[in-house]
Amino acid sequence: MGLLGRKADKSGTGRSDQRDLGRALAAITAFWAWWSTVYEQVATEAAAGGPSPERIAEVTEHVAAISKGLEWELRRRPDPATYQLVVTAGDIAELRSLARRWAQAAPDHPGWSYLSARPAFPAALDSTLAIDGGRQVSPAEAEVAARVDQRRAVVDVVVYHPVFGDLVDAQPREQIATLVLDWLLGEDDVERWIGQVEIATDRPLDSIPAGSLPSVVEQVAAMYAEPRWALLSGNTATGLPVVATVRFPLRRVDYPLADEHVAVVLPYRDRTEQRLPSEDTLEALREFEERLIAAVEPAAVLVAHETANGRRIMHIYQDITAPVADTVGELAREWRHGRAKVAATLDPAWANVAHLRT
Question: At what angle do helices 53-66 and 15-47 cross, to 10 degrees?
Fold first, then answer.
């Protein structure tokens, strides 16, 4: 549990981070100012077969101005005729908040929706994919073997398609598997509930039609509909016990705008021989936690706390554009069991709590 072995970062979010965010937010504003002048033309082009290469390059340029790692996709739904523009972070966790900020800033354009993650589109399984030099493949023939791992609160899947055995290159297999999962569940639920993904060239004995996977995921999601906390334990580098309490399951995708980490370090003098809190200290820590949650949620979220060696570190994630760190600082100054510290650092990938994830 590494953070307990490090000094608290007092630097906060640096000026360069603030400038980068400022540039990205300005690019989002510029995107929508431009898009509002062309979206009707884009709809006409999409209805006639798709945007021109020049239009595609134009959209790509404006999206890249927000961040070069973002991806975009245009979808047309024929009945009724509606359009979706998706700008997504893909598998880059650091960009999730930018994609969500882009979608939240979207104007209201009739017939259009603007999304920060690819939604489920099960009807796409009935389409035909051209792969491996033009070979036609039906995604609907895919099958999956699904194994629920309750310890990690995920579904590990093995994806099989009859064509996989004929493909020499792994890339088209992975492409088909990725598309099938995204179409069935949507990008966010793949991130939220799918664990390991394996590709099989032979049909698994326990495979089911791929179209049945959403019902499996729904059952798992229902198990974790109510908030839970997991208790973890370990040792510091010097052998002292560490106790951590973590939201379970802890999913970055559930808090897309929470891109800044706030660490609240609460030292305590009244402790056991193993430097864990005494009963009186535990009561004071519980009271502080209750007040903290009431003060910061739902604007921010307390995701975990870990205790060892005479101090507790509380991990909060906040929206950097609507910070709660000042409120947290006021609470911390009221801590009477030692000198509390509060440090805020930009952490869009949630690297500061990676050691606490199951």
Answer: 160
